[in-house]
Give the backbone structure.
Amino acid sequence: MEARSITRFTGLNEMIESFSGYKRVIGVGELKEMPFQEGKKRIFESDIRFSDAMLIIRGLEGRALVNLDYTPYEIGAETMLIVLPIHALQVVHTSPDFTGRLLVIQKSFIEECSPMNGYLSLSNYMTLRKNPFVSFLPGESIYLDKCLNEIKEKIELRNHAFHKEVIKNTLCAYILETAHLMEQHKITKSIPVLSRKEDLVNRFFQLIIRNCKVEHSTTFYADKLCITPQYLSSILKEMTGKPANYWISDALITEAKIELRKPQVTVQEVAYSLNFSDQSSFGKFFKKGIGLSPSQYRVSNVS
């Protein structure tokens, strides 16, 4: 798998020296300072872009200056930057001796890993967005590196009968270890100071968690927040890169996937549990969202 095909973050592709990936949904890359011609500035000039992938960038040596959502961070030894889906990342500058490691996970794969799903729930979205940078004490990250090595080893087991499952298990261990270290440093406990817009986005995500199975309209969520649907969509577009209807549909599709993986539940029952008028309208919505009908998705995802 080529690194360029899985990640579209500005300035990062050029730094990936090697990459091991599985079916374009997860990969581990080794990062190195980009080669340059003598006398040229070490600045990567290009536009900031967005991606549907989660990235975890781990510094090993040297330093790299990056902008995440237009906020600067310096990645060095014993540091980590967690980039959630729908964030903007730009590599600005690296020192000549910079090396690091990269874990890339597509959102669809995150949804299949239950411990990660809880860790990256919408209720934690704004906290992690305000606290994406982790600084470790000396020696704390040794086990993380071992877990990452194991993920890479499992990715390269091309003929394993349960290839996907062993990758998911090692990935969950890595994420839980990361969460443990963040807990130790009280990163996930810290309460971010939110702007008015960030507070509205945070409350919107919390409302989705409680109501997405029943309420599908932007108007419902805007009314709960005492703002207009147009304003809600505009601030979500500004803060996350996507409007309100995208996030409502995304939450519904996630819930639908969870239900469709239960073989004892019929597609019609899933449709009614998500407050669709009938199975046909649910099927059209689901296929528009992921390109597969509910039945096709079930065949691919239920053993």
The CA atoms of residues 216 and 248 lie 6 Å apart. Residues 1-8, 36-50 have pLDDT under 50 and may be disordered. Residues 163-184 form the longest helix (22 residues).
